[in-house]
Specification:
The chain is α+β, with helices and mostly antiparallel strands and about 150 residues long. It contains 5 helices and 4 strands.
Length: about 150
Amino acid sequence: VNDELQAIAKTRDELTEQYNAIPQSDLVRLSAVLPPGLSSAQFLRDMEALATRHGLFLKNLDFIKQAAPAAAAAAIQLPAQRLFAAANVSFNVRGTYESLRAFLVDLEKMIRITDISDMTFTAQAATTKEGVVGPPLFEYALRGAIYFSR
């Protein structure tokens, strides 16, 4: 038993040493991948900045509550302990197709893990006050999930 405890303590010390050797800037980036807690305000700021950078108007952003599992189902099958959780999210953006494509490319590269599972769109004729018709504007409704550590 004493040998096992010493091996565990040695492993703990080695892992602590390895963790402490990670540069602080890398730790900050890692915490952005799966931030502690939902961090909904930060996600909203990130999405607004991303949309603005690509000439899109972020119309809304909602976090969708999931229905609680039925008590009978929970009693039969308990979920596995997980170190992360997901939050469903939906948002609408308005702009051109090219802007949306660039937005999605950057969303894919965003450090925070974000999944888009569903997208619909509607078209609107883009006319100025003078009646000049420009390229069509689309309103895109996107649904997906973001992840965070527990």
